[in-house]
Amino acid sequence: MATTVEDVREIALSLPDSSEKLAWGMPTFRVGGADGKSGKSGKIFAALGDDDTSIGVKCPREDRAELIAAEPEKFFVRPGHDDNYDWLRVRLAEVEDTAELRSILTDSWRQAAPKRLAAAHPELERSGPKGPLTAE
């Protein structure tokens, strides 16, 4: 079953201290700074693609090539756009189910979340030695 934009929104906003904000005309999901007091809007951990068929998520640059090689139908980068960022694109139609989507979004959230916030939520710790969006 393909995952949807609604699944992304529901899961992303269920993560601690997460919020949604438009940027570049697209919905982005952020962590931290959503209290309205700091004047900051938080760090982006996910963004919907231009046509709602993909999302961008945090991923260490050194792990992207291996992930893309392993599942090129699911993972990709936009050359010239993602080259200098710890960012990876995910085709929603290729995500197995909402459990896999939750794993991807949670991993991205952990990478963007302030250390204190991430430490306060051990239930969101990586399931494996390196997590779902890092190469083994």
How does this structure look, described?
The protein is of the alpha+beta class and 136 residues long. The protein has four helices and six strands. The chain has helices at residues 5-14, 61-70, 98-112, 115-119; strands at 18-23, 26-31, 43-48, 54-58, 75-76, 87-91. A six-stranded antiparallel sheet has the order 1-2-3-4-6-5. A hairpin with a 5-residue loop joins β3 and β4. It starts with a helix and ends in a 17-residue tail after the last helix.
SSE blueprint and pairings:
Elements: H1 5-14, E1 18-23, E2 26-31, E3 43-48, E4 54-58, H2 61-70, E5 75-76, E6 87-91, H3 98-112, H4 115-119
Antiparallel strand pairs: 1-2, 2-3, 3-4, 4-6, 5-6
Helix pairs in contact: 1-3
In brief:
This protein is an alpha+beta fold and 136 residues long.
Quote the distance from N terminus to C terminus. 26 Å
Question: pLDDT average, as an integer?
Answer: 87
Into which percent range does the helicity of residues fall? 25-40%
Total helices: the number is: 4
pLDDT < 50 runs, ≥5 residues: none
Strand content: 15-25%
Instruction: Encode the helix/strand succession as letters.
Output: HEEEEHEEHH
Q: What value does the Rg take, in angstroms?
A: 14 Å
Count of strand segments: 6
**What class, by secondary structure content?**
alpha+beta
Largest sheet: 6 strands, antiparallel
Strand order of the largest sheet: 1-2-3-4-6-5
| Shape designation | globular
